[in-house]
Design brief:
Number of helices: 17
Number of strands: 19
Structural class: alpha/beta
Strand order of the largest sheet: 4-3-2-1-8-7-6-5-9
Helix content: 25-40%
Shape: globular
Radius of gyration: 24 Å
Largest sheet: 9 strands, antiparallel
Low-confidence stretches: none
Length: 506
């Protein structure tokens, strides 16, 4: 029978099987995120032209996680390692790997059958095995003992990826991470006495820590494009490069996608890879829809930005120093807006847009700093004041940016995105949803996942999001900067003009 399940169908069925708190992943929602770099070896460049294999240090963000969302690391089942390679000025690549060397099934719909059987009990699993003999290898490889360390085991990307060499030759490989030293799993008694977050604690104690990426080459007769089948042993491995993990970052939703691949890497041909990619996009959209956004500031910028977001279908909380001003703005915006107090905005929102003067932002951060942990702060401010002659003057040193100053004031696990400040208030209204080409909304951040979340808001507000770099680049998109409307640009620009201004494709 032909499977007609849509990604939305599969996501709904999975959600019913794996109930989780609002806005969290259905699977792998207990984890830890770290940043670092990857440097490829010479063999990688011979196999693939992908920028991540260029031999330079490539920034990465990596997330270790357990399949299940239990309250203790020891009970989370098999582990996953997702890595995003983000070469400057080039397309990113995601590599999603598991401790299992192969997968249980070949399609997303069959994955639902597997989860249903696993939840139902041993008899249902026996029936599943008889109906899906392809699951035998993964089930046999599953080790129910808790791991000793996230970085003491191997991780396998179960699909075959094509590596395209400079001469155009394509080599199909499976990619896998190897630790410097493999550690034996824990026995039940030992695991029971470990702290709930022992895997995270162990990882942080080991930082900086490294792993090596290998390409496993198929042998004659290996089923290259079947993610459920083991390839012949012993393996033929080619070392591709070295991953070095250095710093913990906030555990945010990075929107990993098994088909987010840079040129030089060919997508897997099996059905499961496509199903997973589609399912991830649907699930990510549902989680994003559950994200709460607050705008603090009811002045010209705050009110016009709120109107842009509401027009784009985003529900917003609005707050200001004067509750009556927030009430009036919410009433004007309609059912997609709700007036709240400052305290409510800080506590309820996942993303907080501080649409107030820079000095006020500093006051708010000083007042609420202990309640900003794990949140995304969006800073549209420009550090200026009237100069007394009808113009404006910068209120901080010429070589400083409000973005960098604010970053130093926030907790380490709070992400900062500089955005929505590159256009004047008039352009925020007039240029939103411009046709035939949208105006660009530049942004800067050091946090990739926070950047993706704010990209969604920039798009909803009616602009084309373009990242200019990390927070060190914030000065370029603040007033008088070379990428600001009232600086080097002089007017809102589209993507083609932005590429010229940045000197690179975006």
């Amino acid at each position: 029978m032909t499977d007609t399940s849509t990604p939305e169908d599969i996501a709904a069925r999975m959600a019913a099987l794996t109930p989780v708190p609002r806005g969290q992943r259905m699977l792998h929602h207990r984890g830890v995120t770290v940043s670092g770099s990857f440097r490829a070896g010479p063999e990688a460049a011979r196999l693939s032209t992908a920028e991540l294999f260029c031999g330079r240090d490539i920034p990465v963000t990596a997330r270790f996680s357990g399949t299940h969302g239990d309250a203790r690391d020891a009970d989370t089942g098999d582990q996953g390692l997702s890595v995003r390679f983000a070469p400057p000025g080039a397309l990113p690549t995601d590599l999603i790997a598991f401790t299992l060397p192969v997968f249980f099934v070949r399609t997303g719909a069959d994955m639902i059958e597997f989860l249903t059987a696993a939840h139902a009990g041993p008899e249902a699993m026996d029936e599943f095995r008889s109906l899906h003999p392809e699951s035998a290898a993964a089930l046999a490889a599953a080790d129910n003992r808790p791991p000793a360390s996230y970085v003491g085991q191997r991780y396998h990307a179960v699909h075959a990826f094509g590596l395209t060499a400079p001469d155009g030759e394509n080599t199909w490989v499976r990619l896998e991470w190897h630790p410097d030293a493999e550690l034996a799993p824990l026995e039940a008694d030992d695991a029971a006495h470990r702290p709930a977050g022992y895997l995270t604690d162990d990882l942080l104690d080991r930082l900086p820590v490294g792993m090596t990426l290998h390409a496993r080459l198929p042998k004659p007769g290996d089923p290259v494009h079947d993610p459920t089948t083991l390839w012949a042993y012993p393996p033929q491995l080619v070392p591709l490069g070295r991953l070095t993990l250095e710093t913990r970052t906030a555990d945010r939703d990075l929107d990993f996608d098994p088909l987010r691949l840079a040129p030089g890497i060919t997508a897997p041909r099996d059905r499961l890879a496509a199903d997973r990619s589609a399912l991830y996009r649907v699930a990510r959209g549902e989680r994003t829809a559950m994200t709460t956004t607050a705008i603090i500031g009811t002045g010209t910028i705050g009110s016009r930005l709120a109107a842009d977001l509401v027009t784009g279908g985003v529900d917003v909380l609005v707050a200001g120093r004067e509750p009556a001003d927030a009430d009036r703005l919410a009433a004007q915006l309609g059912t997609h807006a709700r007036a709240v107090t400052l305290d409510q905005a800080i506590d309820e929102a996942d993303i907080i847009i501080l649409a107030v003067w820079f000095d006020t932002i500093r006051e708010l951060v000083a007042q609420y700093r202990d309640r900003l942990h794990g949140k995304i702060i969006v800073d549209p401010s420009n550090p200026i004041a009237p100069d007394g002659n009808g113009g404006f003057v910068k209120t901080i040193a010429a070589d400083q940016s409000s973005g960098q100053l604010l970053a130093a004031l926030l907790p380490a696990d709070t992400a900062l995105v500089k955005a929505f400040g590159t256009l004047g208030a008039d352009s925020l209204s007039a240029a939103a949803r411009r046709t035939p080409t949208r105006a660009v909304g530049f942004y800067a951040t050091d946090d990739q996942s926070a950047g993706l979340a704010v990209e969604s808001l920039i798009t909803a507000a009616g602009f084309d999001p373009v990242r200019v770099g990390g927070i060190e680049s914030a000065i370029r998109i603040e007033v008088f900067g070379d990428l600001h409307e009232f600086g080097g640009l002089g007017h809102p620009v589209d993507r083609a003009e932005a590429e010229v201004a940045l000197g690179q494709q975006v």
